[in-house]
Every structure is written in structure tokens, then in C-alpha cells.
Amino acid sequence: MPQVARHLTLRELERRYKKAKDPVEKTRFQAVYHAAKGLSAREIARITLQTPRWVHATVRRYNLLGPEALRDGRHSNPGAQPKLTPEETLKVLEALEGPPPDGGLWTGPKLQRWVAEHLGKRLSLVTSGARILTPIYRLLQEAGFALRVPRPVHRKAEREAQEAFKKNSAKRWRRPGQRGEG
Description:
about 180 residues; mainly alpha; 8 helices; elongated
């Protein structure tokens, strides 16, 4: 285990570890505290339920940047900037109240084209996961649109043959005790 920089005393490391409310920060202070006591990375990994590599990285970060490096930075991360300003979003929602320029129903690609033409911005339709909405589909959802997908129809389907099958199969397949026709 590498030497631990003396940013804080052993007693102060222990106090910070025990007082930490954030679980990420608590685990990081715990690792540095045990490293300062002289435990090996493998022993610390077993205690913190982390890997020895994580222990080395945490101690290295503490040595370079001090106690502030052990805080969980996700709490102060504002996230990505929205693709559209609030004013642009209002324009999009207003456009969605009417029909799309080419008629029919609004779709993701139609809205994507509208945004590119009227606002000069490119918004993605591709999702990275099943539950992650892209900006285009999020706008459609916020406007109250629901996904409408027609049932698939085979290109070689014969409508008349399907109807005839439905009529004839009702005669052949009956529940027990059910009276049938002819």
C-alpha cells in the first residue's frame, strides 16, 4: 500500500469516516483511514467491499488532492444542458398542437425534421436504452402524444382468405357443450 499523505491526522480521518452522511464519501474515508493505519489494499478491499485497484485509486486521489477529493462529486453535477431552450420547447409544443406539415400524425422523424427546419437544431432519435427517452420522443410525450403503432400486416396477406378462415374455423372449433351450426 502506498504511503498516505498527511493531509489529516489518523484521528481526523476516523472522525470524518464515522461522521460522513454520504455513503460514497464514508467508504472513501474508511479506505484512506485504514490505509493510514497500515492495512494492505487487499484487506481494505475486503472491509469496504471494493477492489484493491479501487483502494489504490482512492488513496492516490486523496494524496494528490486532499480530503475534498473523497467527496461524491455527483451531488454538485448539474447534468447536461438541455438541447432546446424553454422558448424553443414552447415553439415545438405549439407546433405539435396542429397537424404536421405533410399531414397524418406526428412521428419522431417528422418532429425531428420540423425542429431542424424551424429551429436549426439536430435532435437525436436513437436511444441508448429502452427506458431512456431521446429529446424528440420526450417532447412528444410531454405534449401528451402516445405511441401508435399499427399491427403488422404481411405484404402477401390475402384479406379474403383470412375472413373465410375465420368463418370456417368458428364451425370447426367449438367449446365442449357448445352447439354448433351445420
